[in-house]
From TrEMBL:
Name of the protein this chain belongs to: Coatomer subunit zeta
Any single Gene Ontology cellular-component annotation: Golgi membrane
Topology class, membrane: Peripheral membrane protein
This protein's UniProt keywords: Cytoplasm, Cytoplasmic vesicle, ER-Golgi transport, Golgi apparatus, Membrane, Protein transport, Signal, Transport
Coiled coil: none
Free-text function comment from the UniProt entry: The coatomer is a cytosolic protein complex that binds to dilysine motifs and reversibly associates with Golgi non-clathrin-coated vesicles, which further mediate biosynthetic protein transport from the ER, via the Golgi up to the trans Golgi network. Coatomer complex is required for budding from Golgi membranes, and is essential for the retrograde Golgi-to-ER transport of dilysine-tagged proteins. The zeta subunit may be involved in regulating the coat assembly and, hence, the rate of biosynthetic protein transport due to its association-dissociation properties with the coatomer complex.
GO biological process, one term: retrograde vesicle-mediated transport, Golgi to endoplasmic reticulum
Subcellular location: Cytoplasm; Golgi apparatus membrane; Cytoplasmic vesicle, COPI-coated vesicle membrane
InterPro entries cross-referenced by the UniProt entry: AP_mu_sigma_su, Coatomer_zeta, Longin-like_dom_sf
Pfam families, sorted: Clat_adaptor_s (PF01217), EPF (PF17181)
Assembly behavior: Oligomeric complex that consists of at least the alpha, beta, beta', gamma, delta, epsilon and zeta subunits.
Family in the record: Belongs to the adaptor complexes small subunit family.
Length: 270
């Protein structure tokens, strides 16, 4: 009995020595940032292979415990100010995401109420004004008050919708999905309606211009679509402006200065 027991122990020791002296599997071009000790190299390699997903040529990683991300050996991600997930370059993410070139809000005469550009296709203010005038003229006689309309102009897809004396526009590249652009437009349109309590006209828009400008920031960042749900957009905008309604005596210097600047902007636009 003792001899049999010793044989089992010896066999276990032999297996342990064999496992610890086994060489690492050949590298297939995938590097790993390891945070947790005690990982089996062979099982780790299989786990990473199962965690990789390639979408439109962009390598992404499914959630794997104890690991920050993956990167191909011999390549380093470009410098980036954004907090990217794992090691995926921002340029690769942006190429695979829908993008918007501009969001425009014009009045019934084609003049600016609030606009924001996210593309360098119009490098000067004159080029931007000419673009706004052109699309306003081309869409003036269309009926886009019940449902959004679409048109192609200068290699761009433009989705637009009218209400009262305001004209809403969203522009994307000719390779962008029209449904996504329409969703962005509808999200902006409905968020403005929520913030203005359904009094959507030029006067109300100018009096609440700060809310509309904040909508731009919540919907799109650098051309990338962040949010299209109008209730979420309006909720975030309302959170940003909540402190501005407090008395000046209860505000910090920065908050008081921002409030004064908003009041001055509204006065100049009236």
């Amino acid at each position: 009995m003792k001899r049999s027991y010793c044989f089992v122990i010896a066999l276990q020791i032999l297996c342990w020595v064999s496992a610890t002296s086994r060489p690492f599997p050949p590298n297939d071009g995938v590097g790993v940032h390891q945070e947790g000790p005690g990982q089996n190299p062979e099982s780790l390699q299989v786990t990473l292979q199962e965690g990789l997903n390639t979408i439109n040529g962009v390598t992404k990683m499914a959630a794997i415990p104890n690991y920050r991300g993956i990167a191909k050996i011999g390549s380093s991600p470009p410098s980036c100010d954004h907090k990217c997930y794992g090691c995926t370059p921002c340029e690769a993410i942006q190429d695979s995401c829908p993008s918007v070139k501009n969001i425009l809000l014009l009045d019934s005469e084609g003049k600016r109420v609030a606009v924001k550009y996210f593309s360098d296709d119009w490098p000067t203010n004159g080029a931007k004004l000419a673009f706004e005038k052109s699309i306003f003229t081309k869409t003036l006689k269309t009926n886009a008050r019940i449902e959004a309309e679409i048109m192609m102009f200068d290699s761009n897809v433009i989705i637009y919708k009218f209400i009262q004396d305001l004209h809403f526009f969203v522009t994307g590249g000719d390779d962008e999905n029209e449904l996504i652009l329409a969703t962005v437009l509808q999200g902006f349109f409905d968020a403005v309606a929520l913030l203005l309590r359904n009094n959507v006209d030029k006067r109300e828009a100018l009096e609440n211009l700060d809310l509309i400008l904040l909508c731009f920031d919540e919907i799109v960042d650098g051309g990338m679509v962040l949010e299209t749900d109008p209730s979420i957009i309006a909720g975030k905008v309302a959170t940003h402006t909540m402190d501005a309604d407090a008395p000046l005596s209860e505000q910090t210097i920065t908050q008081a200065w921002a409030t004064a600047r908003e009041h001055l902007t509204r006065t100049l636009l009236k």
